[in-house]
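Quick look at the format.
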Amino acid sequence: MYVAVKGGERAIGNAHAWLAESRRGDPALPELSTAQIRAKLALATARVMAEGSLYDPDLAALAIKQARGDLIEAIFLIRAYRTTLPRFGHSRPVETARMACIRRISAIFKDVPGGQILGPTFDYTHRLLEFRLLAEGDTPPAPEAQPLAPECPHVTGFLGREGLIQTEPAGEARPPDLTRAPLELPAERALRLQALARGDEGFLLGLAYSTQRGYGRNHPFVGELRVGMVAVVLDIPELGFAVEIAEIELTECETVNQFTGSKTEPAQFTRGYGLAFGHAERKAIAMALVDRALRWRELGEEDTGAPAQHEEFVLSHCDNIQASGFVEHIKLPHYVDFQSELELVRRLRRDAAAGSEAAAE
């Protein structure tokens, strides 16, 4: 049992008050609003939604504000709130081929139907600090608003017409839901993709990088990366037809990987797949690389022993809420555990000293 500490409740209350004061910051400055966070920290908001498994930019912005910018803490808040929400039904699979793209690029074809759409990206910036942003209200002039691009077919579809890329088998009509049932291993691909979609971006990024450096022999091309709005459609049993209930922003990535073929299949390309809420390119690409690395068994490839190929390792450690909880719990009271280990070390030292004295005699 833990040793009781007098005044603990009062101390915790004071810590909460101090946290609230720190979160507010300098009272001489205007308070940061959730609307500002949603509009101006859109990429942070997208990460919180993706790894929190809840698409709601307003709640994600609130969680970021409450967490003082700690995104993992904000994701924790969103996950906790999500468990309180009722579930009314399951939407149809979103049709990303009908996405209204604000960004759409392919690294394998220069000219694709619909065109390359650079969109808002850091890819071509010089990574130099823009000190003019320090001047309040000094913002560069915005270009005229452009309409979203029309529907664009998937680039990998062009390879599919020639049989040059593996045809993906149709999945279950309703795959298992990782948020309602515990993860079981080995996991089918649909379940793996759910875990990766909720996984920590940094963890997946490190694993993806490792595959490109030879730990998994996975150096793909980005077949297509697209960001845009898609419709969410829900079947309404009482009405007998489907209704569009919302539009959400998604980022989708399909990678193209070489595959030498087998006794039953000719040489062709295979895919890695990533999908995330909001504008989240790094997450979607990393997810696609790790997804492809985990497919080694079903594709009949060699197990190189690389971390990214180890399903249990990847899926058991990619969740940042579980990871942060287990890592950070060690800062909480462990008085009894430490006292027992302290007594053990003292006893071992006494026994060793006694043995040394006996040997000397």
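Next, a different chain entirely:
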Amino acid sequence: MRPISFKIEKSTRLHGGKNTGSLARVGVLRTPHGSVQTPAFVSVATKATVKGVQPDIVSSLGVQCIIANTYHLYLSPGEDLVEKAGGVNKFMNWQKPSMTDSGGFQVFSLGEGYGKKVSKLGAASTPSEESSAGTAVYDEELATSHGKLAIVDEDGVTFTSHINGTMHRFTPERSIEIQHKLGADIIYAFDECTSPTADYAYQKEAMERTHRWATRSLAAHRRNIEKNNAQGIYGVVQGGRFEDLRIESAKTIGGMDFDGYGIGGSFSKEDILGILDKVNRELPEEKPRHLLGIAEPEDLFIGVAAGADTFDCVLPTRNGRSGGVYTHTGKILVTNAEFKEDFSPLDPECGCPVCQNYTRAYIRHLFQTKEMLGMILASQHNIYFLANLCERIRLSILDGQFEQFRDLFLSAYKIR
């Protein structure tokens, strides 16, 4: 019996024997560290930490699963040390399910995307380009957290460390070996994540290389009997912004015997969310699907309707560190002067511990005086907001009210 299993508890795909057009569903993803009730928000713990928030608090905010970064943990403290600690869960004192990515996104950010300030969501930006709602489009820490060189070839990728400039090498087999030592419940096949600016020919080339790497990753995992019995493995769908490539990739990756599937790549949200349902229709219905790197409130509804089960995103804490806060009426920038004497919670409709105990005026004061607690509280609220929204979406599907809940929420949530 494999360590990862998925059971669909309710699906909106069929109603009265007719296809509804919606792929929204509720499921249970079972792992060695417990179950995840889906749809679910997966909190990003890049270096075995959700930035600024203790693991036990992350858990209390409703997060059921975290995803750590293979590239960063490989460079520091190293996969051998994490293995000696008992794996990433024990190392960071996380008691619930965990994932590690493959390091494939670093191929993009180090190589094709380096120096272009192109994020996973596509548009180029400068340090001054931040929305009035506090969304950090450009993040200096992100821009300096990767090395300056990555060279992709058929066998893998050679890259430099952002820490000291030393040269390193990832292949599919090496990525799987590292992830085996990190010990997360769910690991990912090594993939090449392309720039959204790459043309069709290169997107196709990278997609086909990702498929060959997926075959090698899967073989490397399955032949390690001990790890195969302890960790599940997801394949990654690529293809950039091109619908035909995405569908081809979904068919190819979906035809491999992975335990679940990630929809990856670098793209504009408009591109991928517009074809996500077509991608998911090509993937095995009985297996879980994870949308990599996209999970803002409006995205969750689109992703769930298109058949995705879990979502991860760095923006809750990245936005939180700059004062960007999710509310039921849209995002706000709590550092704005308008909140100086606002003694209401960050979001009056939110039941998180931050909103129960602190005001906008107080949190703005913390930011103005450069107290780190402001960033921590804003991050905690944002994490809760997304985790709780997923829970409410799950309940709405169970109640047969998903479309009504979506329309009600989005009618009040102003996207600025």
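Residues 113-139 have pLDDT under 50 and may be disordered.

See the schema section for token definitions.
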